Amino acid sequence: MIVLDNVCKTYSTGVSALNGISLRIRKGEFVFIVGSSGSGKTTLFKLLLKELEPSSGRIYINNKNIGRLRRRKIPKMRRGIGVVFQDFRLLKDRNIYENIAFAQRVVGKPAKVIKETVPQMLALVGLADKAEAFPKELSGGEQQRASLARALVNNPPILLADEPTGNLDPDNAWEIMKLLEDINKRGTTVVVVTHNQDIVERMQKRVIRLDKGQIVSDEKGGVANDR
Amino acid sequence: MIGRMFFAIRQGFRNVGRNHLFSLASIGTITACLFIFGIFYCIVANFNYMIDKAQTNVGITVFFDTSMTEEQILQMKDAIDLRPEVEHSEYTSADEAWEDFKEQYFPDGDEGILAGLDNDNPLYDCANLTVYLADTSRQSDLIAYIEGLDGVSEINSSGIIADSVTDFSRLISYVSMGIILILALVAIFLISNTVMIGITVRKDEIAIMKYIGATDVFVRGPFIIEGMTIGLIGSVIPVVILRLLYTRVVDFTLTHFTILRNVLTFMDVSDIFRILIPVSLAAGLGIGFLGSYLTLRKHVRV
Ligand SMILES: Nc1ncnc2c1ncn2[C@@H]1O[C@H](COP(=O)(O)OP(=O)(O)OP(=O)(O)O)[C@@H](O)[C@H]1O
Ligand SMILES: [Mg+2]
Question: Interface pTM (ipTM) of the complex?
Answer without folding.
Answer: 0.82
